[in-house]
Amino acid sequence: MTRPLGCFRIMAARFRPVSRGVAMIAAAALVALAAGCDRPPQPKPDAIASSCTQGIIGQRIDIPAGITELGAGAIYPEEAPAKKAHVQAFSIDATEVTNRQFRSFVEATGYRTRAERGLVEEEFADLPDALRVPGSSVFIAPKAGERSDITRWWQFVPGANWRHPEGPRSDISGKDDFPVVHIGWEDAKAYADWAGRRLPTEDEWEYAARGGRDGATYEWGEEKPEAGTPRANTWQGVFPYVNEAKDGFKGLAPVACYAANGFGLYDMTGNVWEWTESAYTQPRDAAPVADGPESPSPVVTFKVAKGGSFLCAENYCARYRPAARHPQDAVLGTSHMGFRTVGAPLRPTGDASDG
Fold first, then answer.
1. In angstroms, rounded to a whole number, what is the distance separating the alpha carbons of residues 93 and 264?
2. Helix/strand/coil (H, E, C) string of the chain?
């Protein structure tokens, strides 16, 4: 099947109705030739929302040790079973890592992300040459009347990376305080190592996201994110056709534009998915499998992604909950994939479970 311009699309199965089962994202997934890769220049970002708390960027918050119920408020089967877990004290970034912060890392080290380097033929010999070139997976919303098909929403765009999030003719000018995206797991880990930090485990991330509201469906309680004052950058309307942008943004938002949770953390719901250190298993308490669950290729390793993104909607995905989890190909960066780091507590803390 050949079409003009011959741009390859990657099938990325992150979004699906709540009634469907778990699907994988893999670099070796179904690919097809697609048109329209020469994307027009992207418009400059809107003015930063006045409610955004940019002064919080770079701050780290101590999370006390305690016992929490992981998996509470589960919807998808892979989120079960709920379990009690003891989490040691740690510190966590108050916001997602931003373009400005990641640029500092790159300027200090000369690091190039996987999206900028492409895939090595020796490791990914089973992939077509066109999918090994530098590039990344970009969400492109269908037009009204087009067939709703996940293979149309996600396209592998050569030249897309953290500096050029929509493709080579886009840039991040004016977006220093937006979360960095198109970051693979190894890229996030490299940043964390440079910062003297690490990536959070799934348990740590979920505990922090709950903000002390143990057992609640959402980080703020039980009210849905679409109700009342916007609480997070998610999709309002019928995904993937209509985004009403009632939360103020149709795409990514600068970090810290919405209220912090009970621990003082921003954007633990929506905006971008976040990497964890944990290998993905299903169910969540199963032993890790070296090459990922139901992996179509021995080179694919899946890590747990948490938090949902600006593409999560009530009618599709619904993953803007602490319990939500998704398998993410460790190699694959996307236009809605970011991270934050954790480390040792900044100050000695007590154990909340000790009373």
1. 10
2. CCCCCCEEEECECCCCCCCCCCCCECCCCCEEEECCCCCCCCCCCCCCCCCCCHHHCCCEEEECEEEEEECCCCCCHHHCCCEEEEECCEEEECCCCEHHHHHHHHHHHCCCCHHHHCCCCCCCCCCCHHHCCCEEEEECCCCCCCCCCHHHHEEEEECCCCCCCCCCCCCCCCCCCCECCCCCHHHHHHHHHHCCCECCCHHHHHHHHHCCCCCCCECCECCCCCCCCCCCECCCCCCCCCCCCCCCCCCCCCCCCCCCCCCCCCCCCECCEEEEEEECCCCCCCCCCCCCCCCCCCCCCEEEEECCCCCCECCEECCCCCCCCEEEECCCCECCEECCCEECCCCCCCEHHHC
Please answer whether residues 33 and 152 qualify as being in contact, where contact means their C-beta atoms are separated by less than 8 angstroms: no
Q: Is 141 exposed, middle or buried (0-12, 13-18, 19+ CB in 10 A)?
A: middle
Q: Record the pTM.
A: 0.81
Q: What is the pLDDT of residues 47-84, one digit of tens each?
A: 334 468 778 999 999 999 999 899 988 888 889 888 99
| 249 to 52, 80, 204, 207, 255: CA distances (angstroms) | 12, 32, 28, 27, 12
**Phi then psi dihedrals of residue 327, to 5 deg:** -80, 125
pLDDT of residue 289: 56
- Cα–Cα dist 300/161, whole Å: 20
